[in-house]
Amino acid sequence: QLQLVESGGGLVQPGGSLRLSCVVSGFTLDYYVIGWFRQAPGKEREGVSCISSDDGITYYADSVKGRFTISRDNAKNTVYLQMNSLKPEDTAVYYCAAADKWTMWTEEYDYWGQGTQVTVSS
Q1: Which member of 23, 30, 43, 88 has the greatest number of CB atoms within 10 A?
Q2: What is the average pLDDT across 37-65?
Q3: Residue of 8, 9, 38 lying closest to 118 (CA atoms)
Q4: What pairing do the DSSP bridges indicate for beta strands 92-99 and 116-120?
Q5: Which DSSP state fits 66?
């Protein structure tokens, strides 16, 4: 059974950093695009970043470009999201998800984790 489990969320002050992890089981990362999404209260889920299955091509939403970095360790079946210079508007539940094609459309991701809360506040 395909599973994704996020961890690493928490409370951080503005300007601080967090690293989220997404551990996958039941499949190997070699064949899936992994995306990070977030959903703030009262807002729709939005794509933050994604990384390709094999050659490491990445995508970032404009709102996080230059502050967030996505990476993958296929040997550990883990994808990371390093988040620096965090802002209060980054506060949301962060989800990782898997898709079998290059996309940032929420609807095209087939498998989802349960989410991890990130709160940026002083």
Answers
A1: 23
A2: 94
A3: 9
A4: antiparallel
A5: T
How far apart (Å, rounded) are the C-alpha atoms in residues 69 and 105? 19
Dist CA 85 CA 71 (whole Å): 18
Q: How far apart are CA 53 and CA 101, in angstroms?
A: 9
Q: Find the distance separating the first CA and the last CA of the chain, reported in whole Å.
A: 40
Q: What pLDDT, on a 0 to 100 scale, did the predictor assign at position 55?
A: 80
What is the rounded distance in angstroms from the CA atom of residue 90 to the CA atom of residue 59? Answer: 17
Query: Are 20 and 36 within 8 A, CB to CB?
Result: yes
pLDDT in tens, 85-104: 999 999 999 999 999 999 99
| pLDDT digit string, tens, across residues 2-25 | 899 999 999 999 999 999 999 999
- Interatomic CA distance for residues 22 and 34, integer angstroms: 9
